[in-house]
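User: structure tokens for this one?
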Amino acid sequence: RKICVRYPDLAADLALLDELRAASPLPAELLTRVIEQYRPRLESMYPDDWPRRLQGLDELRHIASSYAEADQLVADLSLETPDEEADEAGAVVLSTIHSAKGLEWDAVLIIDLVEDRFPSRHALARAEDFEEERRLMYVACTRARERLELFVPQMVHGRGGGSEHAAESPFVRELPPDLYEEWQEGYTGRIQRRARTSAYRPESLSGSIDPPAGRNPALCSYCRHKIFGRGKIVERIPPDKCRVNFPGLGLKVILSSFLTLEE
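Assistant:
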């Protein structure tokens, strides 16, 4: 009791745990309640990147929506630390990129390389976050001794249910075409090699792009972005962002310093 008096948030957390134990909700509902309780502290403790952290929790809640038992969800999500013994036994190792640091395998398969996931949508807001995700991509790729395969799904499951089209990760679009072979799986399951259709863009977002002197992004109809290509500015969002419509990609909010204005 003395501890709860000193830390009122702890008392609220313990009360929530008692309520959840008594109700035994489905995993998705359980996580929703926990996230709602935790969000104010998340925003307070991590003012700079709480949206990115919240996105990870939302992804976990989305995964939980297909489970009826919390025990099974935890069992499926638990990852053992990869080690050399698993590799020597010829087993398939499921690993996060962070857990894979310092390790190597003969073949590495990197999955889910689509826009808004790797890199995350929040990484596009700041150049330093984007470059941090690029470094993680480098770590993942360099774990392969002999064979590296990158998987880019054409469709992903939306948060509201159903499927939606996915754009390949900008890290994939930046790869020079002569460094890899591109294969595509058809609707019948047949896999065949095809020519690369995406434009090669070797530029990095490691620095800002200064608009031409005397030009205001809000007064310019069209612009270019290093990742999304040509788009039309439809709204200025103070103090330093623009809402841009990119053909085939829809509306995106972009930092003005990342846009190159068309003359």
